[in-house]
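Protein modeling request. Please complete all fields; requests missing the sequence field cannot be processed.
Requester role: graduate student
Desired output: 3D structure, token encoding
Chains: 1
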Amino acid sequence: MRLLNIAHFNRVNLYKNSVWFVIGIFYVLLIAQSISGEMWVLLGVLLVPLLIYVALKKPFIFPFGLYVFLLPFDAILSVTGSTTGATLTKYLGVLTILVLTLKGIFEGKLKRPETPAIWWVLFVGYAALSILWSIEPKLVLSRLPTILGLLLVYLVVALYEFDKKEYETIKWIIFISGITAALLTIYTYLQGSYYEKSSGSAAMRASVMIFGRGTNPNNIAFNFLFPISIGFSFMLKQNKKLVKGIFLIILGLIIFALLTTGSRSGMLAVGTVIMVYMLSIKRKVTFGTAITGILIIAISIAQNFVYGRWTNAVDTGGAGRLNIWYVGWRALEKYWVSGAGLANFGNAYTEFANYSPQFEGLNRAAHNMLLNYFVELGIIGISLFFIAIWKHYQSIKLRSETHNQEAIMLKATFWGMLVSSQFMAINLTNKFFWLLWMMILMHKNSVNMDAKEVFGEYVEIK
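Delivered output (462 residues):
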């Protein structure tokens, strides 16, 4: 009788699986037909139920995973069809906030805020208050909605209890996104489609170019740092030489793509990432030999381009950055206490532009994140900023030795981004800037969730 029951159960199970398989095939064919026939309304009707299901079951794939994947392409994903306006990632960010908040509340997966997250709230709150004394208040108002939106995405991700599998999935999404962006960058470079074509070959900088729009080469180089650091981590975890070799080739492609952007800050940041790994891992000789090989090949292919960019930096003082920084420091004589107001560095610069050793124009960006927020928000603002990033770094440093490999990856990304941001116009409206802080707290949450499964309760593991 028991064997008959088992056989009956297997037949029923096979029947159900067959029915779902047929439905799935029919569903895919309908989607393909709607795309080929440009029946967009039908496509929307077909996709909405699927997206709702995935959002409820796998929010780290959609909407948050898709949001993360599209970050390198953010500048070219304007939903208005222009180079300005809301992008697709903005709406995915809103969906992420809604889905994770509702799912977290109903399933009890939202926890109390971490100390690092509280410091970001304090910093953004103080930045908002700067409207009361800013040079031009409307600039504060124009910047605040984006910053508050990104802060909310960060907070809901930081408060949500991601497990290890979900955290690893996001890592793979970042890595695959970096590979995709690298291939597109290399393709446009080989096709001769450059973001800039002026001032000789040194300015022929590659980037992600789609639909006649492109991402600023410095920003795309900044976006490559996390995939590169994750790629090193993946490579070091492999035991088979063939798999290690595959990861080395992929890393070589991403680094080569970064070189074609001509971003000097990106090159310094990659060097920083490599240095952190060299100082942190045990297999220094093997790792150093492999990375040296990658760099020699990548630089040899793009040697004239790389040489031209650094020669240009020497001749122009880093494209005028030294003069801009000097003016910024002079502006601190007036604004070091309360600051000039969020997004008002350009106004403060214009006020002191006559002190520049060489005129670099008016209303210039700082090209240095720390100087930018020191001038804009004064000593209180820059102190809150330092504390916020230091609290996140402490969260990495205090991690258990059993998770040392992951801590190295996060530390390398941290220092690489910090170095890069000192030479770029990076600010709190940069979506990729917030991703690092999310990943730091996501990893901590995933470690604590593992402890919860072991001990039966949520345990804080530093």
